[in-house]
UniProtKB/TrEMBL annotation:
Alphabetical keyword list: Iron, Iron-sulfur, Metal-binding, S-adenosyl-L-methionine
Source organism superkingdom: Bacteria
Protein name: Radical SAM protein
UniProt xrefs under InterPro entries: 4Fe4S-binding_SPASM_dom, Aldolase_TIM, Radical_SAM_PqqE_MftC-like, rSAM, rSAM_sf
Domain spans labelled Radical SAM core: 4-110
Record flagged with keyword Iron-sulfur: yes
Coiled-coil portions: none
GO MF term set: catalytic activity; iron-sulfur cluster binding; metal ion binding
Domain 4Fe4S-binding SPASM: 166-215
Alphabetized Pfam families for the sequence: Radical_SAM, SPASM
Length: 265
């Protein structure tokens, strides 16, 4: 996707009545044209969220975040630097993320945190309390879901999605592929470089995928899901780190789902 591809899709989304756009990755702050896309989306009347690990934010990005009222979201794994850095596989990431959380809040930016339980014995409750002490008002939590590197070679399945995919939200990949959500990259429904996003959204393939999702998740999806990878419309029911291994209260009496241990991006 070129910059003009992205700005064109943003315009199409605005014409469809889309309310929010989220820039995610990988790490979106590494994309050299992020400022331009944020400014374009803001000018088109869309609210903007950037999901970042907040380890490195260029000064000019902070300016754009402030000017455009950007909302931020970040993953957080532990109040302990060693444990957090072990998950991210990046020495010093805890210190940098924590410092930029403080900076974002000092700038008056809206910020939410997401805690993902990825390792046995991970002190997720302490992580939640640490974020709350920093002043983060919204903290979601989730187990690791077996997609991408977290799958450890396993084939992705609809069962491991939350069930809210393609219900008021979708995702567009770096080559233009359209997915029901950012985690369901194995369910491609079209490509915006070939077909307008409105046609993909209303197309036969998207309808088929919605039916597949409804069949697996009883047409309801999880009654409360808090995966921080998703848009804020999936917002957390409680700041409850996932000690039980799942986040669907319909399954509260069931054995916890087995979490895959992996170092996420």
């Amino acid at each position: 996707m070129t910059v003009s591809d992205w700005t064109g899709v943003i315009d199409q989304l605005a014409d469809m009545g889309t309310a929010d756009v989220q820039f995610i990755g990988g790490e979106p702050t590494l994309y050299p044209h992020l400022r331009k896309l944020i400014t374009h989306a803001h000018g088109a009347g869309l609210a903007v969220e950037v999901f970042s690990n907040l380890t490195h934010v260029r000064p000019e990005l902070w300016e754009t975040f402030k000017e455009c009222g950007v909302k931020l979201a970040t993953s957080y794994y532990s109040a302990t630097p060693q444990e957090h850095d072990k998950v991210t596989n990046l020495r010093g990431s805890h210190r940098k993320t924590r410092a930029n959380i403080k900076k974002a809040l000092d700038l008056g930016l809206q910020l939410r945190g997401g805690i993902v339980s990825v390792q046995a014995g991970q002190r997720v409750h302490e992580a939640q309390r640490d974020l709350a002490a920093l002043g983060v008002p919204e903290v979601g939590a989730d187990r690791t879901r077996a997609f991408g590197r977290a799958s450890r070679g396993a084939q992705p399945t609809i069962n491991d999605l939350c069930g809210h995919c393609a219900q008021g939200k979708g995702a567009i990949g770096p080559n233009g592929d359209v997915w029901p959500c950012v985690l369901s990259r194995f369910l491609t429904t079209g490509n915006v470089r070939e077909t307008p996003i409105a046609e993909v959204w209303a197309g036969a393939r998207m309808s088929d995928v919605r039916r597949e999702l409804e069949a697996v998740h009883d047409g309801r999806g999880a009654q409360a899901c808090t995966p921080p990878q998703f848009l804020p419309m999936c917002g957390p029911c409680q700041p409850c780190p996932p000690m039980v291994g799942h986040c669907d209260p319909r399954e509260a009496d069931s054995p916890p789902a087995k979490a895959t241990i992996s170092a996420p991006a």
